[in-house]
Structure formats: structure tokens, C-alpha cells
Design brief:
mainly alpha
Length: 54
Amino acid sequence: MKKYALGFGLLFLVIGSVYLLLSGDLGGAFLLGTLGIGMTTMALIVIHAMTTEG
């Protein structure tokens, strides 16, 4: 499950990089990168909470 969370975050980082190369908009690329990092972090937290007893 963790590989899927990392994959979705990486996907947004790649989309942000491509967006930066095509448009030159640093703000939009930064927001897409931040969204990818945030999604990855939250998905890993949820996966950890689902698999940990306590």
C-alpha cells in the first residue's frame, strides 16, 4: 500500500515539473509539488493508522 501512496505523490511532482517546463509558472509548479508532498504524507499516515493496532 505504501508504494501506491508514494506513487501518487511522485505523480504530482512529475506533473508539477512538466508544468514548470511547459508554462514557466513557478507558483503553479510549486503548488502542484506541495500538493504531491501533502498527499503522500497524508496517505502514509492513513496507511500507518490502518495497519497499526492500538
